[in-house]
Structures are given as C-alpha cells and as structure tokens.
C-alpha cells in the first residue's frame, strides 16, 4: 500500500500527480500493485495547458487504469477525466468504474457495464492532497481552502466469498453533478461526500451489488422509498416502539430520525482518550416494498465513521498502529459529519 501527502500547483498538476502516484509509486511497484494505463483510452499523462488533450471545454484529459488487486490476479477498471469549464472557471475530476474495456472506444465512459459518473471539484490554484492506494482501490482527499473533496475508486470489502460477489466495485466522490451545477463553493445536498450521499439522486456514490448491478446509494428522510444506503449515516433497521411488541418506527417519523441521529450526534471520545471508528457498511433496504439486490453488501476499505465531538479535520486517530486521517463532510462541521481515511 502507498500514501502520499503533498501539494499541487493547480488542477492539471493534481491530475498528473495522481496518475504518477498510481502507476509508479515505489511502494506499489515493489508490491506488484501499481495501476496500469489502458493504452486504448485517452492520452497518456502528463497533461499540459498546451497538450493535445485541449478541447472545446478547456483542458480535458481521459485515462483508464487497471488495478491488479493484492495478488495480481484481478482486473479492476477505473477511468478518470479532467474537465475545465473556462466560462465558469470551475474544474472537475470525473470518475467512472467498469467491468471491462471496449478497445474501439477511446472515451472514459460507455465501456462494459460502466458505472454512473461521480466527481469531485478541484481548482486552478494550489491545493494540498492525500493519495492512498493498494492494488484493490485508491482513494484520496483534496483540500480546497477549508473544503475537503474526497474520492474512492476500486473494490470494497464484500460480505461474501469470491463466487458470491466477484467484482465488488465502488465509485465515490462528492457530487454527481457538472461544473455548471457544483463547485468548491456550492452548498447543499448536491455537494456531499460519498460516505453520506443523502437525499439527492443520483448522489455521490455508486457500487456494484453481488448481482452485478450498479446502484446509486442515497439517503432520503422525506419518503419511505429508500433502497441503498450507508450505515451508520443511514440505518437499515426499523427500531421497535418501546411500548409495543409489534409497531415499528419507520421513516420519515421524528422518532425514527432521533433513533438514527442518537448514534451519530451523541457519540463522544472514549474514556481514557481515543475515538471509536465504525466501518461504513453498504446495504440495500426498503421499508414497505421489495428492493432489487437487498442485503448487507460489505464495507468500505479503510473508511470509518468517527464522532466530531472534540475532534477536528486533519487530526490523526491511531488504531492498531494505523493512522486514520479525520475529515469532515466537504464543508460540514456538525458532530455527525465526520469520518476517517486510513493512511495505508
């Protein structure tokens, strides 16, 4: 596994640095876990302002990468595309996952079973970044002022044997929007970290189920039509009313919301110091009608919920000798808006 913390001069430099990190970082190469460029898609970085990747949209570059897994036996396909809306002076890095590549398609989308597109804003200024990768997945943080843009591409950890969930791919960012709708300064549900995609559809997170179907995870407090979500930010449980053996508390009741929020908002640092880290679980549920591919699918690799009580972004929580970087959800700083990324 490999970790890199550094600074990029602008969006093009960030794109180039991410590509270089994934394809040639010494720790990945030495472990045989470096990601390889699929030559038939896009142009090989580095990009420059005068490169052949210039298009009508400004600087744009597409690249597809193939991850080998931890033992060199997997083929994990993820595409990236750098977009620059010069009219609005907004920049975005788009992310798409695939089951396979079509050799006659040189774009970053529309390959074999391609995912919904996710993205995160970047900008034409200096920015700090954290990149983290193994042969199974890569993830990272880009700091735009006081805003944390995050992403995750690759396998999650399934609750299944390989035959039961052979390709547990997940693509997460902070939006599914475009530069015309979302930028670093945008507030609201269109701009949320993939850990807690909330009420917007399609949201900032998509993952493949055990049946090979892409689903958009989102949380919706206003209706009962919840299908796929992330625990503990959204609970699949229907708690029982204390005074009844049969009645359930279902959304969107205030009792149900209070039950869910009590775990997030009421959590405090542990006695004697430290913090509880809770894995983020991908699940499929629906309260009153059947949902396609229901069940508990797996957990995000290296991502955990942590309380924001007595905590700050960029703190380090150490568990079992592993450092976990504390982050808040884009710009949100309530105690229920924090999570961690393992720096391994």
Could you write a compact summary of the structure shown?
The protein is mainly beta. It has one domain (2-342). 9% of the residues lie in helices and 36% in strands.
Notes on the protein architecture:
By secondary structure, the protein is mostly beta strands. The chain has one domain (2-342). The protein is built from three helices and 21 strands. It has helices at 11-24, 26-30, 254-265, and strands spanning 2-8, 36-42, 54-55, 58-59, 61-67, 76-85, 90-98, 118-122, 127-133, 137-144, 147-155, 157-158, 169-172, 205-208, 214-216, 228-231, 278-284, 295-305, 316-319, 322-328, 338-342. The strands form four sheets. The chain has a seven-stranded antiparallel sheet. Strands 12, 16, 17, 18, 19, 20 and 21 form a seven-stranded antiparallel sheet that branches. The model is unreliable at 52-58 and 244-249 (pLDDT under 50).
Topology:
Layout (H helix, E strand, L loop, with lengths): L1 E7 L2 H14 L1 H5 L5 E7 L11 E2 L2 E2 L1 E7 L8 E10 L4 E9 L19 E5 L4 E7 L3 E8 L2 E9 L1 E2 L10 E4 L32 E4 L5 E3 L11 E4 L22 H12 L12 E7 L10 E11 L10 E4 L2 E7 L9 E5 L2
Antiparallel strand pairs: 1-9, 2-5, 3-4, 5-6, 6-7, 7-8, 9-10, 10-11, 11-13, 12-18, 13-14, 14-15, 16-17, 17-18, 18-21, 19-20, 20-21
């Amino acid at each position: 596994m490999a970790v890199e913390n550094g600074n990029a001069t602008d969006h093009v430099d960030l794109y180039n640095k991410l590509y270089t990190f994934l394809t040639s970082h010494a720790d990945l190469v030495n472990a045989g876990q470096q990601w390889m460029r699929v030559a038939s898609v896009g142009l090989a970085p580095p990009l420059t302002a005068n490169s052949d990747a210039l298009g009508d949209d400004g600087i744009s570059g597409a690249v597809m990468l193939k991850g080998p897994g931890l033992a060199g036996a997997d083929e994990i396909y993820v595409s990236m595309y750098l977009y620059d809306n010069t009219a609005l002076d907004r920049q975005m890095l788009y992310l798409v996952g695939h089951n396979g590549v079509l050799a006659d398609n040189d774009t970053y989308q529309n390959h074999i079973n391609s995912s919904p597109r996710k993205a995160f804003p970047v900008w034409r200024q200096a920015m700090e970044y954290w990149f983290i990768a193994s042969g199974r997945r890569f993830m990272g943080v880009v700091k735009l002022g006081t805003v944390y843009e995050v992403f995750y591409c690759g396998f999650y950890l399934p609750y299944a044997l390989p035959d039961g969930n052979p390709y547990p791919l997940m693509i997460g960012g902070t939006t599914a929007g475009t530069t015309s709708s979302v930028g670093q300064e945008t507030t609201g549900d269109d701009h949320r970290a993939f850990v807690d995609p909330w009420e917007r559809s399609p949201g900032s997170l998509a993952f493949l189920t055990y049946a090979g179907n892409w689903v958009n995870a989102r949380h919706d407090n206003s209706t009962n039509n919840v299908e796929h979500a992330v625990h503990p930010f959204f609970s699949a449980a229907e708690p029982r009313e204390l005074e009844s053996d049969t009645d359930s508390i279902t959304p969107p009741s205030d009792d149900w919301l209070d039950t869910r929020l009590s775990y997030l908002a009421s959590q405090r640092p542990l006695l004697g110091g430290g913090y509880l880290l809770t894995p983020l679980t991908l699940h499929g549920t629906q309260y009153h009608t059947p949902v396609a591919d229901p069940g508990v699918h797996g957990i995000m690799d290296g991502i955990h919920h942590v309380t924001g009580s007595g905590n700050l972004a960029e703190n380090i929580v150490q568990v079992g000798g592993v450092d976990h970087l504390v982050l808040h959800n884009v710009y949100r700083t309530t105690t229920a808006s924090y999570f961690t990324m393992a720096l391994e």
